[in-house]
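DEPOSITED CHAIN:
***
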Amino acid sequence: MTEESKVNFAIQRIYLKDSSFESPKSPQVFRDQWKPKINLELKSNHRLIEQNLYEVLVNLTVTATAEETDAIMYLVQVEQAGIFLIQSMEEHERLQLLGSFCPNLLFPYAREVIDSLVTKGSFPPLMLSPINFEAIYQQSLADKAREEGKVQ
C-alpha cells in the first residue's frame, strides 16, 4: 500500500473562530428572580480548504429569556472550528466523519466557551448536555433522501 492510498485521519487544529455574549437588560436582569428559559440552536457544517484538509464548524446559539416576560437575559453565540486531515477514505465514511465524528470532537470546546462567557457575564454556570451528533447526521441523511424522493 502506497503512502498516497493509506487511510488517514488526523486533527490538525482546533480553534475558536467566533464568539459573542450579550446581556441587553443588564444591570436590571440581576435584580429579577432567576427563572430563565434556555433555548439552544445548533448547526454544523464543513468545507474543503485544500486537498484532504477540511474545516468543520459547530455553531451554537444559546438564548436565556425571562420566564414571565420573554425578555432576553443573555445571548451567547459560539463558532467552534477544527481542521481535519482525511485521506484515502470512501465518500460515505468521510461524510460521516465530517458530519458526526468531528462535530462531536468540537462540541466540548464550544460548551466550555459558552459556560465561561455566561459566568463572566455574572450568570449561573451553564453546562450544556452532550449532543448525539450521530443521530443528527443520520436524520439529515433521511431528510435528504426524503427530499430527493419528492423531487424525482
User: Anything to note?
Assistant: Residues 31 and 93 are 52 Å apart (CA to CA).
